[in-house]
Amino acid sequence: MTIHGTADFSLANWERDRHASGQDLLEAAEPWLGGAVTEVQVHGWRFSKPTAVDENRCLVLNQSPLLVMAGDVFAGPRVEGAALSGRAAAETLQRLAPGGSSGL
After folding, report:
1. Are 22 and 42 in contact (CB under 8 A)?
2. CA pair distance 2, 60, nearest whole angstrom
3. Which pTM was predicted?
4. Which domain holds residue 87?
5. What is the DSSP string of 47-101?
6. Number of structural domains the chain divides into
7. Residue 4 located in a structural domain
8. Lowest-pLDDT range, 31-35, 51-55, 63-67, 98-102?
9. Is residue 85 part of a domain?
């Protein structure tokens, strides 16, 4: 199970002991856990959420060689945004590559 803190929680608790912040997150999630927690790992990523999101799903950086950038900065924060951006990048690569096709 992975529990993510909100951007506000993470910013407010960045300098705090990671274990203490993790305990707060566990307490907040307790109604949904359905059992005892036997092991905990807490990680912090300072730049885990983009401060601005580009309106495009991906960005073509170079035509030759073909280079496309993807990530949550293009399709919105969270894993879903990164996945959607990755799919858009794959579709773009297929479309623009020599001999490419229009679908996956």
Report:
1. yes
2. 32
3. 0.59
4. 59-96
5. T-S-SS--SSS-EEEEETTEEEE-SHHHH-SSHHHHHHHHHHHHHHHHHHSTT--
6. 2
7. yes
8. 98-102
9. yes
42 shares its domain with 63: no
Give the confidence band of 13 by pLDDT, cuts at 50, 70, 90.
very high
CA-to-CA distance for 70 and 72, rounded, in angstroms? 7
Q: Which amino acid is at 96?
A: L
Both 39 and 2 in one domain: the answer is: yes
**Do 6 and 32 lie in a common domain?**
yes
- Residue 62 forms beta bridges with which residues? 67
Cβ burial, residue 48 (10 Å; 0-12/13-18/19+): middle
Does a structural domain hold residue 16?
yes
Residue 103 placed within a domain: no
Q: How far is CA 14 from CA 1, 18, 45, 77, in A?
A: 21, 8, 9, 19
